[in-house]
TrEMBL record:
InterPro entries: Papain-like_cys_pep_sf, Pseudomurein-binding_repeat, Transglutaminase-like
Signal peptide: none
Organism of this sequence: Methanobacterium spitsbergense
Domain Transglutaminase-like: start-end pairs: 355-416
Highest taxon above the source species: Archaea
SUPFAM superfamilies for the chain: Cysteine proteinases
Protein's recorded name: Transglutaminase domain-containing protein
Gene3D superfamilies: 3.10.620.30
């Protein structure tokens, strides 16, 4: 009796060990058997197994032994009794020689967190989905308008621009701008894919004020796009006819161009440029892209040497820290009025550079200098010739300048301390004879 009791206890102990350590899976010859499951339910894992059997079970983690084991689990899932406890496996490592007999061992989460390629179940495939984010040209134009407004009000680049649900960094936005501009020029309406773009480490700028023609800024856009696609970052600068343009200035220039195209349904013939201030991240705000019919008022002439290095340097110095085009125009006018004396003679004698050297001039040469400084600063400027009645009561042939700021022409007669930008007090503006308006003065 004692012997029989001892054997019974040993048998019960063995069964307890087996039910604790292993979940037995059926073999192909045991398709109608039950699965014994004793799992700690912590999460849901879904992985396809052999024969396209699809099932989901809440398990901690499982490791499959041999191919027969997977086949056994697959076949067992078809059993009505086993459906409740059917599991999908996520690894195919054999835990030991002893476990090769159709056993599935429970793994802890830490044990299962190994190499993905080594933990795939036999007969399964791992699919990694990548999502490409794209933006339409309308999206880019809308964002360009907001970036332009931010820069002109805050005097610095924003950290990002919101496009849909994403915050687009300025390096990424430059890529969208240049790629989008190329699309616009080609007449294509395709969307632009967003890329991961880093900021250039050493932005460099050596830029003189002036204009960049449409053909040039389009070529630059293509080069910038190619550089970003190849290097994953913005260039330190873009070379242009005005010098090296750093990334901040490029973002602003192309934002203005996109905004102009959005409003006018055409690309501007020119883009005016001013250097980004070196002392801070504040741009000297260029004027809005100028209409095609006014572009001639930005070009140099024989007596208006607006591309001369001395004129450019002086214009940049005078307008340093200006907050708007009107502010720049006012500073330029005041400087010429306050620093150039008056001498009486007829027609042109010195031109802009000569007047800067002599520091004295008649109305014609004074206007040459003011027009040259304005054009060097990206402000359209022209000459007006008339016969005017001065405060003395005498009528003289006279020349003065006009500066174009924010859609308005302002009179600029710098020969008298009594005058200011837009205001003339030394002769009667209500009664004069207009002789002509010129981009290049003929005398």
């Amino acid at each position: 009796m004692k012997r029989h009791l001892l054997l019974a206890m040993l048998l019960l102990f063995s069964i307890t060990l087996l039910s604790t350590d292993y979940i037995y899976a059926t073999t192909p010859n045991q398709q109608n058997s039950d699965i014994i499951a004793n799992t700690n339910i912590v999460g849901e894992i879904t992985v396809d197994v052999q024969q396209d059997v699809k099932s989901t079970a809440n398990i901690q983690q499982t490791t499959v032994g041999t191919l027969n084991d997977v086949q056994a689990v697959s076949n067992t899932v078809t059993s009505q009794k086993a459906t409740k406890n059917a599991v999908k496996t996520v690894s195919s490592s054999v835990t030991s020689k002893d476990s090769s007999k159709n056993s599935v061992k429970i793994q802890s989460a830490s044990e299962a967190a190994g190499d993905v390629n080594n933990n795939k179940a036999a007969g399964t495939q791992t699919t990694v989905k990548s999502t490409t984010v794209k933006y339409t040209l309308s999206d880019i134009k809308d964002a360009a308008s907001r970036v332009k407004i931010f820069i002109e009000s805050k005097k610095k680049l924003p950290k990002y621009v919101q496009m849909g649900t994403r915050q687009i960094t300025m390096p990424q936005f430059l890529q969208l701008l240049t790629a989008g501009l190329t699309q616009v020029n080609k007449g294509s309406t395709g969307s632009i894919a967003l890329k991961s773009v880093e900021t250039s480490l050493k932005p460099t700028q050596n830029l003189k004020s002036g204009t960049i023609k449409k053909s040039e800024y389009l070529v630059m856009a293509g080069r910038i796009t190619s550089f970003i696609n190849s290097n994953g970052k913005t260039p330190n600068f873009a070379s242009s006819s005005l010098g090296k343009i750093q990334y901040e200035s490029l973002v602003y220039m192309y934002s203005r161009i996109m905004k102009y195209q959005s409003v006018n349904k055409d690309l501007p013939n020119y883009a005016t440029m001013q250097p980004w201030q070196k002392s801070a991240d504040t741009p000297v705000t260029p004027v809005t892209p100028i209409p095609a019919e006014l572009q001639k008022y930005l070009l140099p002439t024989n007596h208006c040497q607006s591309t001369d290095s001395r004129i450019i340097a002086l214009a940049s110095s005078i307008t340093q820290g200006s907050s708007s085009a009107k502010d720049r125009a006012t500073k330029l006018f005041n400087w010429v009025r306050d620093n150039i004396g008056y001498s009486f003679y007829y027609d042109t004698n010195y031109g802009a550079v000569g007047t800067l050297n002599s520091r004295t001039a008649n109305c014609v040469d004074t206007s040459h200098l003011l027009v040259a400084l304005s054009r060097a600063s990206g402000i359209p400027a022209r000459y007006v010739h008339g016969v005017c009645k001065f405060s003395s009561g005498t009528w003289y042939g006279h020349v003065w300048a006009q500066l174009y700021v924010d859609g308005t022409w302002y009179n600029a007669d710098a020969i008298s301390y009594r005058n200011s930008l837009g205001v003339i007090n030394n002769w009667n503006t209500a009664s004069y004879t207009l002789k002509g308006i010129y981009a290049a003065l003929p005398f």
